[in-house]
Amino acid sequence: MSEGNGGLRSGRLADAAGVNPQTLRYYERRGLLAEPGRTLGGHRLYPAEALTVLRVIKAAQRLGFTLEEIADLLPTAAHRHGRSDAPLVERARLKLTEVEERLADLTVIRKALQQTIDAGCSDLIACAEAPDCPLPFAEPARPSPKSAP
């Protein structure tokens, strides 16, 4: 897969990783991907390890990690030999908690939407004014009691 002994050009690396070349440059700017060497003609040449890094980034994104979180994980992943998995495991636990919270929120939204469909609500304003409206509108703000001087 390499372009001679120097590495992979942007297009080949991007194709192999399933991203576009602009993504490679974006990841470089974000510090997720090391800046590659250059050919005499100025073409980027990435080391073979860059493909692994890109696969790790894409896998972490599919698991819901943000690029900022991935940037924190990559140094750990790159130097894992002989190290504990505790940083990754802890991050995975935190991400799982976030996912579970989002699932709970989505379950509430799903229920409200299904109730809206079942109630035949076709007008948002009319629904908001109906006492049995299933949509989760916020309660009106109540004035706070003023403290006595």
From TrEMBL:
Please give the Gene3D superfamilies that the UniProt record associates with this protein: 1.10.1660.10
Keywords annotated in UniProt: Coiled coil, DNA-binding, Repressor, Transcription, Transcription regulation
List where this protein forms a coiled coil: 89-116
What InterPro entries does the record point to? DNA-bd_dom_put_sf, MerR-type_HTH_dom, MerR_fam
Q: Known Pfam families for this protein? A: MerR_1
Q: Which domain of life is it from?
A: Bacteria
- Name all HTH merR-type domain ranges: 7-76
What's the protein called, per UniProt?
A: Hg(II)-responsive transcriptional regulator
Q: List the source organism.
A: Actinocorallia aurantiaca
